[in-house]
Amino acid sequence: MKKEDIHLSDWNRILFGDAPVAFTLEVVVRTVLIYFIFLLIMRLMGKRMNAQLTITELAVMVTLGAIVAVPMQIPNRGLLPAVALLLLVLFLQRGLNWLAVKRRKVEVVLQGDVTILAKNGVLQIDKLRQERVSHEQLFAQLRAEKVTHLGQVKRVYMEADGSFSVFKRTPPVPGLTVLPEQDDRLRRTQPPAPDQKTCNYCGYLATPTDHAGNRCPNCGQQQWVAAVQ
């Protein structure tokens, strides 16, 4: 379209585009047909597509969106090519899932693997960096599980789909608080652990001789604070 053909008063073009007005009704019909075909494809892909998505499932969703957008809105494109592509994606996704069930290596490559982010109250800094998870993102997940300090944590797993699983330690030991610094009043209600300090960066629990001017043996930082219990 040339710039001289563009006029702000051309409401027919703004509302309906270059296609005939009758095509608006056709778009409705196309959309309804694609909608039900899309629902059928999603149903055939299985219940996992209705849950939190893995990397491959997210790729499938984006691909499906790209496929169904064109035939719904472009008048010179038919529905059958889109249906064929939807079926192709269906068989591809089901085939990859079948391979993932048969071979563990294929599953890890396609869907990722679980990562341990915290172990026995200590953050696994290299794993946090690998998964690009910040301290505050992890602490937010812990607070959602009613965890107030790392001494209550036995394991934190980041699942392949990006969700977090928290296993609590019984009985808990002193650890680094996960309460936000802005809530100083609540932090002061946490009783300190006598003669015990923890690394403020990774939560490593140390004795007075460990932290007396020394670096943390787990992460190499020198940010010692009083442990809470």
TrEMBL record:
Q: Where are the transmembrane segments?
A: 20-41, 53-72, 78-96
Ordered alphabetically, the record's keywords are: Cell membrane, Membrane, Transmembrane, Transmembrane helix
Using the record's annotation, list all stretches that form the YetF C-terminal domain.
102-170
Topology of this chain in the membrane? Multi-pass membrane protein
Which Gene3D superfamilies does this entry report, sorted A to Z? bsu07140 like domains
Q: Name one Pfam family in it.
A: DUF421
Q: Where in the cell is it found?
A: Cell membrane
Name the record gives this protein:
DUF421 domain-containing protein
